[in-house]
Amino acid sequence: QPLPSKMGTAGCKCDTTQRQNASRTQSWNPLARRRRRLYVGENWRCCIEDKKEIDEAVELLSTSFALGASRFADVEVVIFPPAVYLERVRKALHPDLALGSQSISSVVSASKATGMVTPVMLHSLGCKWVLLGDSDQRTLFKDSDSMIAEKVGQSLSYGMGVNVFVGETLATYTIGREVPSLLAQLAAATAQVPATAWNRVVIAYEPVWAYGEGSDRCSPARTQQILGTMREWLWHQYGPPAGDCRFVYAGPFDKLSLQRFAALPDNDGFIYRRTARDVLDVITICRTLASCKDYELVVGSEVREEDIFYN
Predict the structure, then answer these.
(1) Which of 86, 115, 166, 253 has the fewest CB neighbours in a 10 Å radius?
(2) Which string of DSSP letters, residue by residue, matches the chain?
(3) How far apart are CA 142 and CA 135, in angstroms?
(4) Rounded to the nearest 10 degrees, how much is the dihedral formed by the CA atoms of 186, 253, 219, 206?
(5) Is residue 53 within 8 Å of residue 293, measured between CB atoms?
């Protein structure tokens, strides 16, 4: 399904000051690619529950990363373990690897309620990043756009970075309404981002419809169109600092497609679902990503499969 090259901004509520500042900046130029630090997030979800397996996974990952850390200086790597193991992982994790939380509680006024995970708790544990708005949170825990926006504001106010997921369901994809859906999610999630905090924002594109056996694959060319369009929208709404924030791919890929996704000009990395038993995949992803970004890829608004250069 072809995507429009422009994304409208009508109906999106954005900070007035940021929008006014954006209107005074230089015009959007899709060829003006800035060098951004690459990003790889490994979301362990709740795939392991035993502390012995956690310890083994962290040791294997930290040891392997230490051997090639100098080669990955341009890649920020974040590990997202289950919440009950955050402290345990932090103590054993290689110092060049960052710790992230898979979620955060949304209501500040109820921060002392039973079962809450507050930003104060996460900050004190040394968490640098928080996952927000992924398909699990939206479907299983019914996180709305407004709840996700609130969590974004809370996390940023305590100095943490946010991985904001936006994605389209199969129903939305089938009727060709993915662009308005993505825009609405993006507008809501970024409404509370301060002008000085865009370096702590990573937008993760998650094509929910592409998961599952027998599902259609989200191609690299389509992903580039989506990422480039959303980046342009942010640029027009908030100005260059927003347009230059990092975008990553959070959909399914395999060893054959990894290089193609890594080489996309508007893709700055990956957030991917893996069990801790697959921890060494992060080394392969970092190596591939860093290698592909050594190439200068200059493209316009239209990207074809054959135009994506990779090793």
Answers:
(1) 115
(2) ----S----TT----HHHHHHHHTSPPP-TT-PPP--EEEEEE-TTS---HHHHHHHHHHHHHHHHHHGGGGTTEEEEEE--GGGHHHHHHHS-TTEEEEES---S-GGGTTSTT---HHHHHHTT--EEEES-HHHHHTS---HHHHHHHHHHHHHTT-EEEEEE---HHHHHTT-HHHHHHHHHHHHHTT--TT-GGGEEEEE--GGG-STTPPP--HHHHHHHHHHHHHHHHHHH-HHHHTSEEEE-S---HHHHHHHHT-TT--EEEEE--GGGTTHHHHHHHHHHHHTTS-----S---GGG----
(3) 10
(4) -10
(5) no
Whether residue 206 contacts residue 273, with contact meaning beta carbons closer than 8 Å, is answered with no
β-strands 38-43, 75-80 pairing: parallel
Whether the predicted pLDDT of 302 surpasses 50? no
* C-beta of residue 44 within 8 angstroms of C-beta of residue 82: yes
pLDDT, tens digit, 9 for 90 and up, residues 186-239: 999 999 899 999 999 999 999 999 987 557 889 999 999 999 999 999 999 999
Around Cβ 77, how many Cβ atoms within 10 Å?
22
Q: In the structure, what pLDDT confidence band is assigned to residue 275 with cuts at 50, 70 and 90?
A: low
pLDDT for the residue 6: 44
> In percent, how much of the chain has pLDDT > 90?
59
Residues in the chain: 311
Q: Given the DSSP bridges, would you call strands 201-205 and 246-249 parallel, antiparallel or unpaired? A: parallel
The structure's pTM equals 0.85
Residue-wise pLDDT tens digits, 162-174? 999 999 999 999 9
